[in-house]
Structure formats: C-alpha cells, structure tokens
C-alpha cells in the first residue's frame, strides 16, 4: 500500500532539512574559522594571570594588640596593618640609653682625671727643675771642696759631707724625674681608658639603634599600594619573628600572563609580539599584551623531580616552555584580571618587522 504524505509531514520534513542544512553550515563556518585561527596564530589555553603576591612577615615577636585591616581591603603604602605590644622592646631601649648615659658620665670623669693628672705632671716637672738646680749647685760645691781639700784648705770630713749632700741631691733629682714620668704614664693610661669607654659608648649606641629598630618593628605597615589577601592573625595572638601574618597583592607592578606554549610552537613566537587573550571569567572581553621573555628551560625542568630520560623508560612527550606576556591597557581593565585566572592566549604568527633581528639579539647571551 502506497504511503500518502500529508501537508504537515511535508512541512516538518522541509523544516528539518533547513535546520540540518543550517547546522551543517554553522559547523562548517566554525570549523573553517577554527582552522584559520590555528593557521594564522599560535594558541594555548594553558595560561594563567600572574602578579606579585608577597607575604607580610613580622620582624619582631610578641603579642598582637590590634589588627588594622580586613581581608580584600585596599591599602596604601605606609598604612598600619598590625600593632605588636612594644613594652619589652621599649624597656630594652631605656636600659641601653641609661647605659650610654653611665658611660658618658664615666668619660667625663676620666676627662677630669686627665686634667688633674696634667696639673700633677706640671707640678712634678717643676720639682724636677728645682731638684736639677739643687743638684747643679751641690755639684759645684763638691768640686770646690775637692780643690780646697787638695790645697789642704778644707778637711776630708767636710769633703765627705759635701759628697753625701751631692748624693742626696742626685737621688732627689732622680726621684723627681720618676715622679714626673709616673704622672705622664697615668695620663697616658687614662687616655687609653677613655678610648675604651668611647668604644663601649659606640657599641651601646649601635645596640640602641637596634632596639629602636625593634620598637619600630612592632608597628607593621603596608610595604606598597595593594590589596590585602588572606588574614591569619587576630588580636591577642602570640607571634614569632619571621612568621607570615597576611598576604598583600602589589598594585605598583605590572600584571603578566605566563603562557605555557608547546615547544613546537616556539618557532613562530618572538620578543615584542603582540598577544591577545580572553579570561574564562570574561569570555567576551579581549585583553592585549606583549611578549617580554621566554623561560630558559621547560616547565618540567624546574619541577621538584625533573624527568630523567636515561632510566630506560623514555616516552617522548611534547614539552611546554613558559612565555611571559606583560598585560597592557588601562588600570581599570587590568583590575579585572586576578592572580591565578585561566586565560586563552593567541599570538599571530606573522608579525611586523619590529620583532626581528635586533630585538631577539638583545636577549641573546654574550660570549666572552
């Protein structure tokens, strides 16, 4: 029996045929466009947004008395983030200041002693001059009595008495010289002691500077403009020096994309090439950037356990090389990109002459 098609069947068949044709056309256009994109550009979806994310580290230990920030808060360079109890450090600073004052007072006492010893030395010098004069006079008298004794005008007893007086004067002169030398030696010793005290004062002042630094470390400030990340501390918590307290994203530096291209794609990439990319979070927004550097090794070479192909289980795998792309554009546009976002990068294979010769040569190592 011959099947008869109604008008409705024919209409459905026609609509289905048009839909199938339209689908095939759309797929053909999409396929041609995809193939064309792969032909004219090197693409990769193995790429992430990077930016400097630095930890906020305490340089002093103690109890936290106040936390002045919240997670995701925008901060300016110099803004106070945390306050640590400074009393222990201020006490150490006061002790060092008191020690400096004590040593400075000791130095003043030594300076006064030097002045007093100088007066004593001058008095001893005068005594040496007087003893020398007496010795000179006694020597003349002794010589005179020697002549008188030889002429029998004086007795031997008188000569011996003059000899004894001369010996006493000579001893007194030697004693005066020794006293003067001792006074000068005491001055030299005191000057040396002053040098020791000055060195101690310098050491204490350096220690005071260190204590002042410790006091300043109890106030933790933002190192640059940025946005605070995860917060791991609360007021009343005990922390140690070197402990990570928070994270801050640096807004003063550029953002960049690390695109892990296959090694077979690198021949078409050059320094200075313009790259375009879209983020998974903003698929309809096209971002732009510039290739600024190539990694000196593949990504696997920097892993904790790099592959060792000499073990006998070698399987050839296409390696990927990180390519650094600086993101360009307005700050408001850059703020859309967050650290760690996945992006799809595309770099046109044929570039204008600006990315040839001299640009590549600028990054080649010099030979000695």
Automatic annotation (TrEMBL):
UniProt xrefs under InterPro entries: Beta-barrel_RND_2, MdtA-like_BSH, MFP
Gene3D superfamilies linked: 2.40.30.170, 2.40.50.100, Helix hairpin bin
Region ranges (Disordered): 349-368
Pfam families named in the record: Beta-barrel_RND_2, BSH_RND
Any Gene Ontology biological process: transmembrane transport
Gene Ontology CC annotation, any one: membrane
Membrane protein topology class: Single-pass membrane protein
Predominant cellular place of this UniProt entry's protein: membrane
Chain ranges of the CusB-like beta-barrel domain: 256-297
Keyword list, A-Z: Coiled coil, Membrane, Transmembrane, Transmembrane helix
Residue ranges that the Swiss-Prot or TrEMBL entry lists as coiled coil: 145-193
Transmembrane portions of the chain: 12-32
PANTHER family: MEMBRANE FUSION SUBUNIT OF EMRAB-TOLC MULTIDRUG EFFLUX PUMP, TRANSPORT PROTEIN COMB
UniProt name for this protein: Membrane fusion protein, multidrug efflux system
């Amino acid at each position: 029996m011959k099947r008869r098609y109604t008008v409705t069947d024919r209409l459905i068949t026609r609509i289905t045929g048009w839909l199938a044709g339209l689908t095939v056309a759309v797929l053909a256009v999409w396929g041609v466009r995809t193939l064309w994109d792969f032909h004219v550009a090197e693409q990769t979806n193995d790429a992430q947004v990077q930016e400097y994310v630095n930890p906020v580290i305490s340089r002093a230990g103690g109890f936290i008395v106040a936390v002045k920030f919240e997670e995701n808060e925008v901060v300016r360079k110099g803004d106070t983030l945390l306050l640590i109890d400074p009393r222990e450090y201020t006490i150490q600073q006061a002790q060092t200041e008191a020690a400096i004052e004590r040593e400075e007072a000791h130095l003043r006492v030594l300076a006064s002693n030097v002045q007093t010893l100088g007066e004593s030395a001058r008095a001893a010098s005068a005594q040496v001059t007087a003893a020398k004069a007496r010795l000179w006079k006694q020597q003349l008298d002794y010589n005179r009595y020697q002549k008188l004794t030889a002429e029998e005008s004086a007795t031997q007893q008188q000569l011996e008495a003059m000899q004894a007086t001369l010996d006493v004067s000579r001893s007194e002169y030697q004693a005066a010289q020794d006293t003067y030398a001792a006074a000068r030696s005491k001055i030299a010793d005191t000057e040396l002691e002053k040098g020791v005290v000055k060195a101690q004062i310098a050491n204490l002042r350096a220690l005071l500077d260190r204590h002042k630094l410790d006091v300043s470390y109890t106030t933790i400030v933002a190192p640059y403009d940025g946005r605070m990340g995860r917060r791991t501390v609360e007021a009343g918590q005990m922390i140690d020096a070197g402990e990570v307290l928070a994270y801050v994203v640096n807004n003063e530096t550029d953002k960049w994309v690390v695109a892990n291209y296959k090694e077979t794609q690198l021949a078409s990439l050059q320094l200075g090439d313009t790259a375009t990319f879209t983020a998974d979070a903003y698929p309809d927004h096209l971002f732009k950037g510039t290739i600024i550097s190539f990694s000196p090794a593949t990504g696997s070479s920097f892993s904790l356990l790099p592959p060792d192909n000499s073990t006998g289980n070698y399987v050839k795998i296409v390696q990927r090389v990180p390519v650094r792309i600086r993101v360009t554009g307005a700050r408001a546009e850059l703020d859309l990109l967050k650290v760690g976002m996945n992006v799809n990068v595309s770099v046109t294979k044929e570039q204008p002459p600006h990315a040839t010769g001299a640009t590549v040569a600028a990054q080649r190592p010099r030979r000695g």
